Structures are given as structure tokens and as C-alpha cells.
Amino acid sequence: MRMQKKPQMVEAVVFFNDRGICKEMLYPEFEALLDNIVQMPEYADQQMSLAYLLINPRLMVRAVVLFYLDFDETGQVDPGWNLPLRQLADRAGRGPDMGAGPIRLACASQCPVPWHQMHLWDPILTPGNNHLVMIREVIKRNHLGLLVDEEPAVVEPERLHMAAEHQWYAPVEEPHDEAEKIAREMLQEHQQKSAEMLTQHEMRIATLSQQHERELSQHRLDAEEQLKALRRELTALRECLQREEQAGTSLRQELAECRLQRDELVARLGTVEQEGRAEVAALRAGLQAEAQAKVAGMLAQCKEQLAIRDAELSYRNELERHLRLENDALRAGKDGDEMAVLEQLSGLGVIFVAYHPGAGHLTIPLQELTRYRQNPMAYAASKCLVSEERYRDWLAHYQQPTCDGRLSNGERCAIPVDRVDTPSRFVEGDNNCCSRHKGRGLQPGLN
């Protein structure tokens, strides 16, 4: 006859993170983790919240111990960790019902061994984020592969009896004893649920009380630190005020001495001023006489030189007039010859073309050739619809697209800028300046 393996009570451990249960394992695997046979690098240098569970063959949790576990930088468990989980589970107090009656629960607010309280934590029991509900749902899914006792209760044949025929149908009205029995069962169930809810509320109140005590302790500590800092600051301010008062006393003494010295200097200055006025009056009279003599001599000399310059200027103007007349006569003859040659070339189909940046290749009519010869730059600027000065500025930017701004030492900035290919779109002080000199002008020392 083959023996069947019956399910037994199972020990397991689950890990919690911010999102809930992140890992579950059987207790032998947890012991291997404690012996550093297995490492968990994903939890390196962290303190994890764990729960030790005792599970019956019907996948119902019977005991829960909520504790902390520290990992070092390599993912190994702290070698100094030593918490008697099984003893805590056996000696734990009553907790809420997780499907098989009230569980045994050991946590920070309900610890059977006081010196282990610092290593335990309290569960959150709020709807939607209840740690005990998370544990119950994870164990029901049975990812650990536990053996489940699903066999229905079997009644032995000799215990079965046939009822009399008149008892095959249920009576219309239930007996009074049966109703009282149901009422007692309902009352017991209600009392049990009330006790469980009372236990949960007591645990939640204890958890909130400990949380408020911790927050109050932290606030007190912060207030003491702030008070100490304020006292230190007050002491420093008093010392500073004392030094300032001493400095003010010394400054007042120096000011009194300076006032005495000033009064002495004012008296001396009055005496010197009276003496100096007489000397200045004598010097002024002598200087005025000397200056008048020098001015008269220089005025006569200037008049003589102006007469000589006027004669020279009239002679030069006359000579310039004769030279201009001769030059006009020579130019009239030369221009006539050149225009005749250019008209002959134009008659033969010759086209006069000149290239200028921004304007491209310009076809110059014969009647505009003289204006082009007199000022090619102005002619190109007119074709670009800009002034000659603006065209010259754009041409300098086009040939060398760098910043024209001046540094504090007077040198040119010369940082490369974007080239503007059209003279009409060029803006002086903007397109030929970098971002540092735009709108600041090109004067030196504005950097």
C-alpha cells in the first residue's frame, strides 16, 4: 500500500518594497540566505521589511512576524542579525482573522519580547494598502508550490442511518431550539467579528500612537537643535555688538581728535589766506601787464604773417585756376576719344559686365558707364537698393564674417558670426556682432 504525503504546517518568508510584496521563499531558503550561502545583490546596502509566516495545509496564514533585515554592500545579510522568529510567532498576541480565525501577530506595537521591539515594524491596515491582505492574497496564489489539503471530509458508512419516511421532508416551521441555536451562532460570529475589528483598531491606534510619538520626538529634537543654533547665533551677535560698540567708541575718540586738528588747520588756513591774497594781487597785476605786452607783440606778428599768407593764397588760387583750365581742356579731348571708342565697341555688340558681391554680375549700359567709372562702389550699392556706406559695411562683413565689437582692452572681438548674403538685410551693430556685443554698440570697453 503506497503512503500518501500529507500536507503539514509550512514556514515561509516574504519581502516588501514600496509597491508591495516583491519576493517570497520557504524558510529553508531563508536559512540559506542567513548563512550567506545565497546572496541578493538587488538588495545591497538596504534595510528590507520582511514577514515570517506560518501557513496551514489549507493555505491559511496562522502566524505573522513582521521584522527588518539589513544587507551589506555585496548583498549579504548582516552577520549580527539574530532574531528568534519561531519563538516570537509562538508567543505572539492575537491579531485579525485572515480566513482561519484570529492569527498570532508579532510587530513593533505588539512584541512579546520587549528587547526585540526595535527590530520589528507595524503593518499598514488602510483599505487598498493593507499588508495583511497582501500576504493573504499572495499565499492563496501558491507561487511557493505548497501541498494543499483539498480532500473533503468522508463519513464512515456505519455512521449513516436511514430516516423514517415521515421525516424525509423538513417541517414548515423550525423548532424553537434550532432558532435559538442559530441566534447564538450569529451572536458568537458577530462578537468574534467585533472582537477582531476591535483588535485591528487597537493595533492601528497603537501604530499611529507610536508614529506620532516618533514624529513628536523628531520635532522636539529639531526644536532643540534650532534653539541651540539660535542661542549660538545670539551669542555671536552679542559678541559682534560688543566689538562694534568698542569700535564706535574708538571712532568717536578719533573723530574728536580730528575735529581739534581741523579747527587748528582752519585757523592756520585763514592766516595763510590773508597773506596769500596780498601776494596774489601783486602777482596778478604784474602778470596782467606782462601778458598785455606779449599779446600786443604776438598780435602784430600774426597780422604780418596773415598778410604774407593772403598774398601766397591769391597766387596759388590763380595758378590753380590756370591748371584747372588746362586739365579740363585735356580731359575733354581724352573723354571724347574714349567715348568714341566705347560707342564703337557697343555698336559691335560688346556688353560691359562687372561683378560685385551682393549685386552679382551687372550689365552696365553705355549711358551709365561714366557714372560707374566715377564711383563703382556707389553704383553697386544703388543696384542693391542700399546706401554706399551701408554697402561698404556689408562688404566688410561679407568678406570677413566676424564680430566687430571691441573688448575692454580695445582689441576687436573677431568671434565668427553668421554671414548675411544680401546687403539689404544687413543691420549694422546686429549682424556683424556676436551675442555678447549685440545691441551694445561697437565701442571699446563694453565687454
Features:
single chain; alpha+beta; 6-stranded mixed β-sheet; two-stranded antiparallel sheet; 50% helix; disordered C terminus; coiled coil; Chromosome partitioning protein ParA
In short:
It comes from Pseudomonas schmalbachii. It is built from seven helices and ten strands.
Description:
The protein has helices at residues 27-34, 85-91, 131-141, 176-347, 369-374, 376-383, 388-399, and strands spanning 10-17, 20-26, 47-55, 61-70, 93-97, 102-106, 125-126, 129-130, 352-356, 360-364. The protein is of the alpha+beta class. Among the domains are: 7-149, no CATH class; 352-425, no CATH class. The strands form 3 sheets. A 6-stranded mixed beta sheet has the order 2-1-3-4-6-5, sandwiched between helices. The protein has a two-stranded antiparallel sheet with strand order 7-8. Strands 9-10 form a two-stranded antiparallel sheet. Strand 9 (352-356) and strand 10 form a beta hairpin.
Write the layout of secondary structure elements.
Blueprint: E1 10-17, E2 20-26, H1 27-34, E3 47-55, E4 61-70, H2 85-91, E5 93-97, E6 102-106, E7 125-126, E8 129-130, H3 131-141, H4 176-347, E9 352-356, E10 360-364, H5 369-374, H6 376-383, H7 388-399
Helix pairs in contact: 6-7
